[in-house]
Amino acid sequence: MRAIVIGSGVGGLSAAIRLAAMGLEVLVLEKLPDPGGRARVHRAEGFTFDMGPTVITVPPFLEDLFATAPGEPRLYPDFPQWEGLPHTERYVKLVPLDPFYRIHFPDGTHFDYNNDRDHLLSEIRRLAPEDEAGYLRFEEAARRIFQRGFLELGFTHFGSLLDLLRVAPDLLRLDAVRPLFSFVKKYFQNPKMRRVFSFESLLIGGNPLSVPAIYAMIHFVERNWGVHFALGGTGALVRGLIRKLEELGGKVRLGAPVRRILVRGGRAKGVVLEDGEVLKADLVVSNADYVHTYGELLAPEDRFWHSDLRLKRTRLSMSLFVAYFGFKAEGDEGRRLKHHNVLLSERYEDLLKDIFVRKALPPDMAHYLHLPTLTDPSLAPPGHHAAYTLVPVPHNGSGLDWGALGPTYLERALGYLEEAGYLPGLRERLVYTHFITPDYFQWTLNSHLGNAFGPEPVLWQTASLRPHNRSEDVKGLYLVGASYQPGAGLPSVMMSGKMTARLIAQDLGFFQKPKEAFA
């Protein structure tokens, strides 16, 4: 039996590995000349830049994936217990980061965020002593949401509204459906602490003002398993996943853009490439953007549930402007900065409204500044750093002309890093720059309107209200990745890969042995 996976993102590769372990003949098709999707790598002049995700959490998910073997796709248990990462270390080396993030405020203060409770309390006492008791109450509330929302329900595929209604009373009892920022405000008085404990939803494309408070669980996802970095960059992780897939007999074909999913009698039968080549298959898994999959890859006559009107009404996540730059090191960068840095602006709520609601380019910027050469100097030539700074911006529904704006915005972004004192003398030290805009997400990654994370994770696009991993329109068509359940972010797309493979296994009658056989 043959399975075609459209797209070589982490979610697509995760599903492909499990399908190959089930004994299917797996072919992954990638439009671009290099793999990874959003996790691609940009290399130039001796610098290596991860183009997308850099925050790796829940290493046991990777260990579970790398431990797959022929006949053992490890579809259960959901959260295997591991001591160490022996299988992962065959493919990629992970190193823990401390702090996870240094969160910088415009007044020059900062908050070092990690998973040590005593350290977090000391940081709170240093910046906002009035919020120490509030944190303890927040901690308990977030722990309960994490227990129910992540540990117990994280791998649940919500295939119908009834599935959501069954758990709705629990979510209401946990206060997990009110907006995250409103939830955080219940526990913290200080504006700085409200930002510290709400910003993380932005890492998965969610506006803290509108995503449900179930995303407070991110605090305990990181508290439980830490934040890690793959030596060699996230690209090294992608290479490890491809190596694992190939060991299981799967293949990856690069430079193979898909034009259409073939459907015969209401069932997926393969794909047609842009050059007209037809590739037949017994099932198809799309790791592509939701609107692109249903709106472009499927013919209109092959879909009913996912109509043009439904696609048009989908609320999409924001996009990103990302500047990649190499510069001469002065040797003291690690004093001011850490591996992951969040540079907050004076505004918070209004800035978020500009990006998500007004679809306007804000006059100010908030940055996520990634400086991986503090951890892995091999990513740059000797005496240099490789970095990127990521600025949330509206998706292309804004009508902004990034062809004209891009170079100026690059100057603004890098100028801010210098003038605000994060990287003094940066412009004189620059030796390489490159940038991407929402146009990259739209035209290179086929992400509708240049969204960076799929449908925005608001309440009415969560759980069963988020696009499903098994198509309602076409039998034998499955979906995986950030656009689908459970959502965006590296842990979630790996979860998505396992959930989708589990649905396929159920449909194929793969479970002839008890679940425990896969533990």
UniProtKB/TrEMBL annotation:
<dbReference type="InterPro" id="IPR014105">
    <property type="entry name" value="Carotenoid/retinoid_OxRdtase"/>
</dbReference>
<dbReference type="InterPro" id="IPR002937">
    <property type="entry name" value="Amino_oxidase"/>
</dbReference>
<feature type="domain" description="Amine oxidase">
    <location>
        <begin position="11"/>
        <end position="504"/>
    </location>
</feature>
<keyword id="KW-0274">FAD</keyword>
<keyword id="KW-0125">Carotenoid biosynthesis</keyword>
<comment type="pathway">
    <text>Carotenoid biosynthesis.</text>
</comment>
<comment type="similarity">
    <text>Belongs to the carotenoid/retinoid oxidoreductase family.</text>
</comment>
<keyword id="KW-0560">Oxidoreductase</keyword>
<dbReference type="GO" id="GO:0016117">
    <property type="term" value="P:carotenoid biosynthetic process"/>
</dbReference>
<dbReference type="Pfam" id="PF01593">
    <property type="entry name" value="Amino_oxidase"/>
</dbReference>
<protein>
    <recommendedName>
        <fullName>Phytoene dehydrogenase</fullName>
    </recommendedName>
</protein>
<dbReference type="InterPro" id="IPR036188">
    <property type="entry name" value="FAD/NAD-bd_sf"/>
</dbReference>
<keyword id="KW-0285">Flavoprotein</keyword>
<dbReference type="GO" id="GO:0016491">
    <property type="term" value="F:oxidoreductase activity"/>
</dbReference>
